[in-house]
Each structure stands twice: as C-alpha cells, then as structure tokens.
TrEMBL record:
Residues 176-186 have a biased composition (Low complexity). GO terms for molecular function: chitin binding; endochitinase activity. InterPro entries: CenC_carb-bd (IPR003305), Chitinase_II/V-like_cat (IPR011583), FN3_dom (IPR003961), FN3_sf (IPR036116), Galactose-bd-like_sf (IPR008979), GH (IPR017853), Glyco_hydro18_cat (IPR001223), Glyco_hydro_18_chit_AS (IPR001579). GO terms for biological process: polysaccharide catabolic process. Residues 164-189 are annotated as: Disordered. Residues 1-33 form the signal peptide. Residues 276-566 form the GH18 domain. The keyword Aminoacyl-tRNA synthetase does not apply. SMART domains: FN3, Glyco_18. Belongs to the glycosyl hydrolase 18 family. Chitinase class II subfamily. This is chitinase.
Length: 566
C-alpha cells in the first residue's frame, strides 16, 4: 500500500540467478582446521572499531542481534547506500569464505581488491536473520582486501552481524575463536495449529544459529530465536528442545516443552461474507485522491480496509485516529455510524495496519500481546470486523502468528483477517509473510498480494513474468494456490487507476481475464494453470478513493465480474 500523501515505493526487482540467490542464500564452505576469521570486530561488539561507514550511515545497536550483544545498523539515504568497509589482511594465492548475517532492508556483502575476481552477493528485504556467503581467491601479490556491506539507495536500514573472512591467517589479528554457546533458555510454545507448533526462546550470547528437536530428533535449523515445526498430525502431543550453535560446536539441549496440535477442521466461516469478494482500501488521509466517507464507498466493495492504524510508543501496539480535518470535517460519530450501515448491508469494515511507512514491529511475546489487545480495542471502539496486515517492512512469522491467534481468541469466529504482501514476500513458502499465512490458514480470510510497484518476478512454472500483464497476475497467484493456501484465500490486488501506483496498473478487463483464467481456464495469456480454482476469492484495489477519482471505473467493471463468478 502507498504512504500517506505519496505513492509507495517502486522497487524494480531482478529475478534471475540473483533472486534465486537472495531467496535461498548460500551455505558457507567448511573451513580447514588451520583457518581463522580474519575480520576484526566481526560482531560489532566494540562499536564501529575497524569499520568505516559512508556519510555517517552506520551505528551499532543492541537489538536485533544475531550473536553477542551488538550488531551493525546502517541506514541508506537518497544518494548514499550506507556502505561499511574494513580492510582485512590476507595471504596471497589463498581462498577465503566471506560471510555475514543480515536482516532488514536490501543488504549486500562483497570484497574488492582481491587481485583476481572481486565478489559480491545480496538479498532483498528480510524480517529475520539470513546468512550471505561467497568465496574469493587472492592474487599472487595480494596482502589485503576490502570487505564491505551496503544497502540500497533510499531503502530501509539493514542490519549486519558476525562477519567472517574465513581462511588462512593473514596476520592482521582477527577476533579470537569462539567457544561453544550455552543452552538456550526460555523455550516456550507461541502457537499451534492442526499441523504445526510455533516455538520461541531467548537469544544466546555467541550463538550463530539454533537447532530444533522434536521428540529427540533434529527437525530444523534456524538463525533466529523462533521456529515453526510443520507437518504434524492433528490432536497429537509432541515434545521440543533447542540447542545453540556456532563455529565451535553445539550447546547442550534446552529444557523440554510439550505442545498438542489442534483438532483441525476447515477455514473458520466468516458470517455473511460472499464466496467471491471485492476488497478496497479506504484512505484516512487526503493525498489528492477523492476524499470519501465510508458511506461513499460503492456497494461493489465487500470488504473495506481502513488505512491505516499507526504504531504507538508501546512495542506492537497500534492506534487509530480519524483524520477529520483532512476528510472535510468527517466526524468520529459519522464514521462509526457509516461502519454500522455498511455492516447492515452485509459488508465488512476492517482496520489496516502498516502501509509503506508503517513501523509496527511484533517481535516477541509481549509485543504480540500488545498488538492483539490494541487491535481488539479498536474493533470494540469503532466496530471494525477485523484487521488487515500490510507490513511492508517485514514481519516475524512466529510472533505475528501468536498475535493473530490471540486476537482470534478474543474476537471469535467472525473475525476477518486479510493480508497484503508485496510480490517478493510470496515467491516462496519460506518467506515470512507466506509462513504467517500458512500458520493461520484456519482463521485467515484472504491474501490480496500487491501485483504492482514490483518488477519482474518468477511464476509457479519457474519462468520470469513482467508486471502489467495477465500472465503476471495468474502465474504469481499460482504460487500461492499451489503453495498451501485455499483458493478462497487468494485474491488479486491491483491499483484502481494509473495514479494509484507507481507502476503495475492493468485495465479492469485484464483483472477479469486473470480471474477467469484461474477460476475457469479461459482468458489466459501464455501461462495457463495446470488446474482451475473456481473458489478463488476475488480481487482487491488500492484504493476506493482513486477508484472514485476515476469515476469508479474499476469497481464498476471488476465488482460485477467477481460477484458473477460461479
């Protein structure tokens, strides 16, 4: 979704081998017994000592950290990519493995001055720690290389930690070898479904990763302090332990926790929500689009997402204030009455959390509880039917799952939960947004991915598709449809007009063709799905205001088509 007063970011993302690298990461090659980490202050425990960051862009923080008690935070500006560098002593004619753990916005890692081929690797936005790794070989006269990290111009801050230049000792005095970490403490169950259990635990100083054990058998390894174990049987009890790891080895196992999966069942019914629905975002601000009251939103919209709730000073908590001044004197009482009138007409009105500038962070149990409590309070105050998750700066799947399940337990089975991830967020089931959607599949209403402000992306057939075409809509929707979401939980999100997004607008006729292609196998472009999905939920647009500015051309064409799907 866009920011208040201007369009959202218009990142063009390449999806060739670079994207595959970004999604999957690279595993570091094993080091020999004589190899050392030649990087100094590799974990930023001594501030920025040995590091130099461009334009004052870097600082150290105590959270989030991957290992130890500190990490680098570097914030790009319009003309600065927040590059932080270190000169590292190396031996000539030697091979080194360069690696680092990164989180946050776009992050790059590389080495120059190698005397042979300089190297680099990168990853797009990541809400959890991810390891980047590459290798290089020094030239015959090379005794030092420059190692760097950087972000991307004008994008979100990135974090880096535990940098390694692993190889023969170059004599520059790297950090001392690590010792085995302690066993993790605080292991707790943060959520359950009929087929999964979510876990969280405390950070262990010096750890670079964690292993998760189910009934004594290792089932996964993660870099952060949370994990979701999937593929479990319904109504079954399991025991779990975790260990901490680093280059020195693996810790002892933590204390055991037990959890029982739920009994299963289908998606929770959502009252009188139609089988095929249209979602529209309503702007609680004036950015040049038509100013509307809730009562002005056309009846073609079945779900109206009020944009946006804002972060507060309490971690995880959100608040909402009607912009009466910007909305021509629209009062809170009128707003509440209009919501009731829409509900009486069978519509749902929900509050959207996030947007391009949204800074809501749900990263632990306390903030998850704060999120659930504050959203439920807004539902009671204004009469909202649920919540939309539109966090474009990343989310933690473990704790967002916990937050939404807590909200569901308060609001009951009629709760509406929608999500609006960006295209990059739904390229793989390992992504944090996709994980969250699967974790809450039994209470999730619909995922309306934003098929705009994107660039080329991979479809479910492994081919690259460009935004602005029917193939882009259908081939990317196929990833969700074949990745575990029910067809009724998949919608197509597009701008209502050319002014509603920086890029990616398609005519309503293209949206309708994409819906027909997925639901009936007709109207397809070059991509045709292997099977049809007649229960496909429908479509979404940003925004009802931009739709109104264009004479409601979008809802006038797409609305009847969605409601006419058999």
């Amino acid at each position: 979704m866009p920011a208040r007063g201007r369009r959202g970011r218009t990142r063009a993302r390449a999806v060739t081998a670079a994207l595959a690298l970004a999604v999957a990461g690279l595993a570091a090659a094993p080091a020999s017994a004589a190899d050392v980490n030649n990087a100094r202050n590799a974990g930023f425990e001594s501030g920025l000592s040995s590091w130099t960051c461009s334009a004052g862009s870097g600082t150290t923080v105590s959270s989030p950290v991957h290992g130890g008690s500190a990490a680098l935070k570097a914030t790009p500006a319009g003309q600065d990519n927040a590059q932080c560098v270190q000169s590292v002593a190396v031996k000539p004619n030697s091979t080194y493995t360069l690696s680092a753990w990164v989180q946050g916005g776009y992050a790059y890692l590389g080495a120059t001055g190698t005397g042979t081929t300089d190297v680099s690797t990168w990853t797009p936005d990541s809400s959890s720690w991810k390891q980047l790794s590459t290798t290089f070989t020094t030239g015959s006269a090379t005794t030092s290389v420059t190692v760097y990290t950087h972000g991307w111009y004008g994008q979100a801050a990135y974090y880096a930690d535990d940098v390694q230049v692993q190889g023969p000792d170059g004599g520059g005095g790297g950090d001392p070898a690590p010792t085995k970490p302690a066993a993790p403490g605080g292991l707790a169950v943060s959520g359950t479904t009929s087929s999964s259990v979510s876990l969280a635990w405390n950070t262990v100083s010096g750890a670079t990763g964690y292993n998760v054990y189910r009934d004594g058998t290792k089932v996964t390894a993660v870099s952060g302090t949370s994990a979701t174990v999937t593929g479990l049987a319904a109504s079954t009890s399991y025991s779990f332990q975790v260990t901490a790891t680093n280059a020195a080895g693996e810790s002892a196992k933590s204390a055991t926790v037990s959890a029982t999966t739920t009994s299963g069942g289908g998606t929770v019914p959502k009252g009188d929500l139609p089988k095929h629905a249209v979602t529209g975002y309503w702007q609680n601000f004036n950015n040049g689009a038509a100013v509307q009251k809730i009562s002005d939103v056309p009846s073609a919209y079945d779900i109206i997402a009020v944009a946006f709730a804002d972060a507060t000073s309490t971690p995880g908590a959100v608040s909402f204030s009607l912009d009466s001044a910007g909305l021509n004197g629209y009062t809170v009482d009128q707003f509440k009455a209009d919501i009731k009138a829409k509900q009486a007409a069978g519509k749902k009105v929900i509050v959207s959390v996030g947007g391009e500038r949204g800074t809501v962070a749900v990263s632990d149990t306390a903030s998850a509880n704060n999120f659930a409590n504050s959203v439920y309070s807004l539902m009671q105050t204004y009469g909202f039917d649920g919540v939309d998750i539109d966090l474009e700066n990343g989310l933690n799947p473990t704790y967002m799952t916990q937050a939404l399940r807590s909200l569901s337990s308060k609001a009951g089975s009629s709760l509406i939960i929608t999500m609006a991830p960006q295209t990059i967020d739904m390229q793989s089931t390992s992504g944090s947004y996709f994980q969250t959607a699967l974790n809450i599949k039994d209470i999730l209403t619909v995922v309306n991915m934003q098929y705009y402000n994107s660039g080329s992306m991979l479809g479910c057939d492994g081919k690259v598709y460009s935004q602005g075409s029917v193939d882009f809509l259908t081939a990317l929707a196929c990833i969700q449809l074949e990745g575990g979401l029910a067809p009724s939980q998949v919608g197509i999100g597009v701008p209502a007009s050319t002014r509603g997004a920086g890029s990616g607008y398609v005519a309503p006729s293209v949206v309708n063709s994409a819906l027909d292609c997925l639901a009936k196998g007709t109207g397809c472009g070059s991509f045709k799905p292997a099977r049809t999905y007649p229960d496909l939920r429908g479509a979404m647009t940003w925004s009802t205001n931009w739709d109104a500015t264009a004479g409601n051309a979008w809802s006038g064409a797409v609305g009847p088509h969605v409601h006419g799907m058999s």
